[in-house]
Amino acid sequence: MHFSVIPLSSLIFCYAFAQGIIKTATYPLSTGIPNAPSTDDSGNTENQVKVHVVRVGANKATTFEPNKITAQVGEMVQFQFADGNHTVAQSTFDQPCVPISMVDPKISGFYSGYMPTSAASDMLPTYTIMISNMKPVWIYCSQGRHCEKGMQMVINENSKANATRTLENFSALAAKAVTVQMKEDENPTGKTPPSPSDAAPKSSEAPSKTSDKGSDSGSSSRSGSSSSNSTDSNDSKKPVSGSGKNTANIIVSALVGLLVFAIVI
Predict the structure, then answer these.
(1) CA–CA gap between residue 89 and residue 98 (Å, rounded)
(2) FRET label pair with 85: which of 79, 93, 257, 262, CA 20 to 30 Å apart?
(3) How many Cβ atoms are within 10 Å of 211's Cβ, its own excluded?
(4) Where is the signal peptide (predicted)?
C-alpha cells in the first residue's frame, strides 16, 4: 500500500478547517434587542446590550414600574404595556404633562402612541428607547388625566446638579398641570421633526407602524413581545439555522471519503 504524505496531510488540515466552519456557523454573535430582557446587572458579557424593563399600567394602576431608573449610554429602556391603554411621551421638568416638542420645537422627543392591551393577553406591546447621553429624561402618560394622577417617571435623575429637579418635585408639578393629549402617531408641533440633537433620543418604529423621529435619549422602537418573564439579559449565542452547517457537513463527509480512499490505495 502506497500513499503520499502531502495529500494526506492536506486532507487532515481541510478536515480540521471544516470543523471550524461548523462551530462558526452554529454559534454566531448577536447584538439584537432581546424580547424579554432583564434589569439584572449580572451576566452581561461582550456584545450584549443591557435592557432596563419598565412596566406600564401594571395591575391596572396609573404608574410606571419602576418610575426612576439609571441607564448608561448605549443601554436600552423597554416599556412593556401590561394593562389598559397608555402612552409613553417625553416632556420637560417644568411642564410635566406637555410634549417636549411643544416646549422646544427643536426637539421632537419620543412618543409611543396609544398601546391598548389586556392583562390576559399573551402578547405585551413594547416600546424601546436607547440612551445616548446621561441627561435627565422626563416621561409621562398622555392618556386622560393619568399624568396628573401620578403616571410620570424619570431616567437618569441628577439631583446633584440641581437639587430641586427630582421626581418628587416633578410629580408635584404634574398634579397641578393639564395633560396635553396627542392622537395616534401625531407630531404635536405640526411641523416636520428636526434631526435629532445630542441632547435627545432618536426615535423610530417597527415597519408595521408609522415612523416617529425623536430626539432626547436614543433610538426607539415598538413591537409586541411574549409576556413571559426572563432573567437573561440577552440571547447572544442562540443557534441559528442556515446553509453554513449543511455545507460544512458535506465538506467533512467528502474529505473523510477521500481520506479513506487515499489510505486504501
Answers:
(1) 9
(2) 93
(3) 12
(4) 1-18
Q: For residue 18, what is its C-alpha cell? A: 471544516
Question: 25: which 3 cell numbers?
Answer: 456557523
Which amino acid, residue 201?
A: P
Q: How far apart are CA 51 and CA 62, in angstroms?
A: 23
* Residues 143, 158: Cα–Cα separation, whole Å: 27
Q: CA 183 to CA 233: how far, in whole Å? A: 34
Angle between the N-to-C axes of helices 5-26 and 243-264, in degrees from 0 to 180, rounded to the nearest 10? 160
Residues 6+ apart with CB under 8 A from 233: 34, 37, 38, 40, 43, 44, 48, 50, 51
Q: What CA–CA distance (Å, rounded) separates 50 from 44?
A: 7
- The residue among 152, 187, 185 whose CA lies nearest residue 170 is 152
Q: What are phi and psi of 221, to 5 degrees?
A: -155, 160
Distance CA 15, CA 256 (A): 8
pLDDT tens track, the chain, 265 positions: 555 555 555 555 555 444 443 332 222 222 233 344 444 455 555 678 999 999 999 999 999 999 999 999 999 999 999 989 999 999 999 999 999 999 999 998 999 999 999 877 888 999 999 999 999 999 999 999 999 999 999 999 999 999 999 999 999 999 999 888 765 555 443 333 333 333 333 333 333 333 333 345 555 666 654 433 333 333 333 333 344 445 445 555 666 666 666 665 6
Neighbours of 105 (CB within 10 A): 14
Query: What structural domains and CATH numbers belong to the chain?
Result: 51-175 (2.60.40.420)
